[in-house]
Amino acid sequence: ATGADNDLYINQAIVFIEDAIQYRSINHRVDSKSLWLYRWYYSRTCQWILSLTITIILALAFVEKPSSLTITSDVRYRLPAWNPPCGLTESIELLCFLVFVVDVSVKSYLIGWEEFWKNKWLVAYILTLIVSLADWIVSLSFFCTENVRIRRILRPFFLLQNSSMMKKTLKSINSTLPEMASVVLLLAVHLSLFTMFAMLLFARTKDGQQDKEWVGYFRNLPDSLTSLLVLLTTANNPDVMIPAYSQNRAYSLFFILFTVLGNLFLMNLLTAIIYNQFRGYLLKSVQSSLFRRRLGIRAAFEVLSSLKETPPNAQQSYVSVGALLQVLQKVEMDSRCKQAIMRSLKMCSCDQLSAAQFQKLFEELDKDSIKQHPPSPEYQSRFMQKMQFAFGHPYFGYLGNVVALANIISICVVLVMDADKQPSERDDFFLGAINCFFILYYLLEMLLKILAMGLKRYLSYPSNRFDGLLTVILLVLEIATFAVYGFPHPGWRPEFMGLLSLWDMVRLVNMLIVFRFLRIIPNMKFMALVVTTLLDLVKNLRAFAGILVVVFYAFAITGIMLFQGAVVPMGNIRRSCFSFFLIYFCFVLFQSSFYIKKVVVLSFQEKCDFMALSGHFQAEVIYCLLYLLSVNLICRWAKIYFVVWWLISSVIWVNLFVALLLENFIHKWDRRCHREPLSDIEYQRTVELMFRDVLEEPTEEELMEKLHQHPHLQLCR
Q: Is the pLDDT at 535 greater than 70, yes or no?
């Protein structure tokens, strides 16, 4: 091996180890120029630019026509939404497309032509770009007046293809669909049978006074099916059964039987199936990620064993410790893992590492991320040592929780006493004095804890950072209140001054005090377990949130295209029925058919009066639905749209989230039962580590077979 070959082997090992860290595939070009391009592409700067581009192109929907994004959602008062001139958003979109073209070109080049055709995501990426660019050209040719823009529905694909975990999650969901379909089919049979029973049970009679159930809910097959489908969501319960129940109490047995079979059995059975099947498919996905990591580490070992430092006649491949140290200096990895691997190398007495030793070193990547808290300061003074013991003791924290509870109770008492008073009759003296006393205690408590623990140790605890930040904000607000309005005194009701009135300042302080009471969570073990489970879901399950954004975005854009023009101009204000997240709330109201039908029969003036009494956002939704339900054709298609949305968002996605929540909680509960947490150590888990105990290690033969199939790497043995 020459010097140039050695440099190439070192660079290959660096890239393979970085691939293993990020669970990336190693099936890419490994020549010098390609390795440089590969590392540049996966650098933080390039990935940040790509993420920013995806965010921008998704955000364009908020300002593109027909956008309804305004400051207020009240249809009576909001101004027309800003309509950007033709070519502005299209220019931004073109720049985003150019970034995506560079992205797909680099990816395609790095994996090679043969691997490109095997990668369905890349092929779909190019097809999406071609369709989007063609649709973009059509938009400009029509001077941005066309109503249907196909490329807007395709935009979520750019977010989807950029996340490997999101693609694995989607693949797992796709594999779970057959099992879910069987239960959904059973649910459809259940719904159909009870629809037939309902139409027979609540058929029209000669007495019109006894036909309220038939008129309201079971007039025909579509209405009957819709009424029971909404009842399955419990949105129209008990409205749907009130007319029949008023006529004869025995009719309640029909609705009870429908609800018990549908909600208690079939829906929960669907949750159980999704939990069991999805967990299995997700486990397979994580198993493949582990294989990628082991393969990347083994590939790094193989290329490093080709260096000239390795004995040529050795029966077994070895890697020198010096070569590995040289590689580790250039690898981008977590400093904790790098330091742990280097410590292990220094403790190793041998100069050569076998494949097993090399792989074992990098098992540090699979371990829990452990955060060690800094030590407390050591005081020489006897008095300071007693102070440190007293204010560093857990009981001092419990005392702070009791004081915080007393603060909350005092605020509640004052608010209850002043609930019915007019602003001119209210005396803010008591509330201001109480807040002043407790904020001073919080400041003293924070300073004493810093004295006992030291600033670094104090800030190393998230609960202390939360507590300290709110204390500082409360102190600043209190000082600002005193500077503007003076100190509290009886009859303290000064006029409005500055940005906020005195009452606004006091309310803001009280809201922060109530929020600060969350500090009790770490002291309650079971509550802390629940909260950490939720936080882990937020931090580690971003892939599921990403797919949720994709679903919301796709349905929002589809809703805009389907129902654009369904809401006619009123006065000189033109309203668009669907904004981004409006579809969810529209569906919630749409579920209650009794509620909506009662509104539809009102006169125009009654509708306006009803909207004025219904609240701003609710009025907008009702206004949309009044016109959707006034047109029969649109109404029928609207039902299909919202039912599909309910199936995907509520039935499938919510159950998937429940399954993952259960898995995460059970995992943490098992760890809590088998190992008591240490006070100075925090364990941070990832999705891969959740399943670490049940994963199987790949064998030597499997790794070498896969390496010999590498399209661009030629091994010496």
A: no
